[in-house]
Structure formats: C-alpha cells, structure tokens
Amino acid sequence: MTAKAVKALLLGAALSTASFTAVTPVMAQTTQDGVYRNEVAADRAFPLLKGFLGLPVAERDAINLNYVLRIKNGNPKDAQILLKQGGQSTRLSILADGRISPLPTLAQMNSGARIEVTGPSTMSVAMRLRVYATAKPAKTMPTAPLAKAVDQTNRVARKVGGVMALAIPRQDRVFFDGAGNGTVTLSDGSTRALPKTPRNDVVPAGTPFFVPADFKNATSVTFDNVPRRIIVSDQVK
C-alpha cells in the first residue's frame, strides 16, 4: 500500500508477511496547495526500530536496521523529511540509495518525536526496511560474523516483531551487493562457488549470497570486489 492510497488518518504500520525486510508505514496524508504531506509518530514511521534500539547491544551488535524511502511519481530530491520534536524540526537526509539518515534515537521516539514527509502532490511514498550486517565488507571475510548476523536477525524479529513475528519468514542468508563472483572456503581447505540471485529482488540479479546452514564447515568467503553492503534476508522471491 502506498501512502497516497490512504484516505483516512491511519496511524500505524503494516508489516509485510513476505519478508522481515519489507515494511510499509501507513501515515496520515493531506494534500494542500500542490504539496504532499504525511506525518506520523517516529516509532511508527520506522517500524521495529524502537524495539531494536531497546535491546541490549550484545543482542543486536551484528546487524543494523536501515530504512529506504521509495518514491513514486516524484523525484527523491523533491522530497523532504523532517524530525519534529519539542517545537524543533530537523531535516533528515535521503542518501543516494534512498536510505534515511540519521534515524531517530530511542530517546527521541520515547519523547514523542514525529516524522513529516513533504513533496509534490503527485508523489507517493513507502518505506522499506533493510537489515545490514555490521561486519566490515572486504574481499575476504570470515563467515562466523555473517552467521551471527543471520542468527541475530531472527532473534530480533521474534523479540520486537510482536504478534507479526509469527508471520515473518526465517531469514537464512546474506547477500553481498556489488561483490561480483564469490567463493566459500571450507574447513578442509576446499572451495566452492557461492550461488547467485536469479533475478532482481532485495539485490540485483547475479548477486552472490551465503547461506550458513548450507556450509556449516565454512571458514571464509572471498569475492572479486569488496561488497558495497551486506544484506540479511530470505530467499529471492
């Protein structure tokens, strides 16, 4: 659902059952004088973020939550996102890949901060959640931190997903965006080619990925290029 389709003041968030990494917030929309305007509480604009930040660091240190703004019928450069708190407004940046930065802090969400999105009246907006591993991208990487990121993602989903946690599929792999070809090295020293995505989805077609459960004796992965980002998700649809 796009925010443009909302015809009433619905304050909430709809979590897609297709993937833990697909989240669309539902915001209160008004259009006036050719300006699109959506406003919602910060903890609803960024689903799961409040619960995530409320966990002990040791339970979430292998992953970060990132929120990507998807805009239809408009240019992202024409959109503006404001964090409103205590009578003050702070403009948030929309990075080249659509990610919003910085994200609200736990203290800001607890104090009632709100998010406002404005732009041309023809624009429609949705937010997508992406889970990134915090392991530093490199041409050769140990697999233990990657397996930890997958495990933490599922544990976090169960702890902060509420009733929707039952509908979230198990996240079982990491994608290495921009890495080119990849191989996995096993404990006996042998290597195998990493599989690649068959089509565009969370990442472009041809992106290598690693499923820890498929290579339980893996020690490292190696790539043609340093990955731009490492995304935790489930299988390509």
Order of helices and strands: EEEEHHEEEEHEEEHEEEEEE
What is the typical, i.e. mean, pLDDT? 84
> What level of helicity do the residues show?
10-25%
Instruction: Output the radius of gyration.
Output: 19 Å
Number of strands: 17
The main sheet comes to:
6 strands, antiparallel
Low-pLDDT runs of 5+ residues are: 1-19, 22-28
Strand order of the largest sheet: 3-4-9-6-7-8
Distance between the termini: 19 Å
CATH class assignment of the largest domain? Mainly Beta
Number of domains: 2
Question: What structural category do the secondary elements indicate?
Answer: mainly beta
Percent range for β-strand residues: 35-45%
Shape: globular
User: So, CATH architecture of the largest domain?
Assistant: Sandwich
Question: Number of DSSP helices?
Answer: 4
Annotated CATH topology of the largest domain: Jelly Rolls
Verbal overview:
There is one protein chain. The chain is mainly beta. The protein folds into two domains: 3-131, Jelly Rolls (Sandwich), CATH 2.60.120; 135-233, no CATH class. It contains four helices and 17 strands. The chain has helices spanning 42-45, 49-53, 106-110, 144-160, and strands at 12-15, 23-26, 28-32, 35-41, 63-72, 80-85, 88-94, 100-101, 114-120, 124-133, 140-142, 173-177, 182-186, 191-193, 209-210, 218-223, 229-233. Strands 3-4-9-6-7-8 form a six-stranded antiparallel sheet. Strands 5-10-17-12-15 form a five-stranded antiparallel sheet, with helices on one face. A four-stranded antiparallel sheet has the order 11-16-13-14. A hairpin with a 4-residue loop joins strand 13 and strand 14. The longest helix is centred in the middle third of the chain and has 17 residues, at 144-160. It is globular. Mean pLDDT is 84; it is low at 1-19 and 22-28.
